[in-house]
UniProtKB/TrEMBL annotation:
This is FxsA family protein. Pfam families: FxsA. PANTHER family: UPF0716 PROTEIN FXSA. The chain crosses the membrane at residues 26-46. Keywords: Membrane, Transmembrane, Transmembrane helix. The keyword Membrane applies. Residues 136-160 are annotated as: Disordered.
Length: 160
């Protein structure tokens, strides 16, 4: 709850204050130009890195692996894009930090260690192989009060 309060109340107040301060120092047109420049630059970087992440995910799928890391990186890139398109310097700083591959790699590794996404026994390339996916529900969402794991199992075959 505190996170949402900070996100929707405190952060916009700081963003407005910082925009006013920067505008009083360099002028309103220069401030608007800087905000537009960061949005255009961010969109350009986001497109390039998004395509790179999509290509890596496709390569992992083609080799019979689950692209868990690439899925999480894609999610971080989407958040980064939303932050870069939001007017303000604080959101731009956070958005640009998510565009740094090293930062994304560290965050992805941390999320995978925390069990945000766990995949077991994925072998897509072989016919009749077995795939098991476990999803861990968050107690904060109230979906899994008993802490039970949801397991989906099945067999499949590839028809080319």
């Amino acid at each position: 709850m505190r996170f949402l309060f900070v996100l929707f109340v405190i952060l916009p107040i700081f963003e407005m204050w910082l925009l006013i301060e920067v505008g009083s120092q360099i002028g309103s047109l220069a401030t608007i130009g800087a905000v537009l420049f960061t949005a255009v630059l961010g969109a350009s970087l986001l497109k390039r890195q998004g395509l790179h992440t999509l290509t890596r995910a496709q390569q992992r799928l083609d080799s019979g692996q689950i692209p868990a890391k690439e899925i999480l990186e894609g999610l971080m890139l989407a958040v980064s894009g939303a932050l870069l398109l939001t007017p303000g310097f604080i959101t731009d700083a956070i958005g640009f930090s998510l565009l740094v591959p090293g930062v994304r790699t560290l965050l992805t590794a941390q999320l995978l260690r925390q069990g945000v996404l766990r995949v077991q026994g994925a072998q897509f390339g072989q016919q009749g192989s077995h795939f098991s996916y476990q999803r861990y529900e968050s107690r904060a969402q109230g979906d899994s009060e008993s802490g039970e794991k949801v397991t989906i199992e099945g067999d499949f075959r590839r028809e080319d």
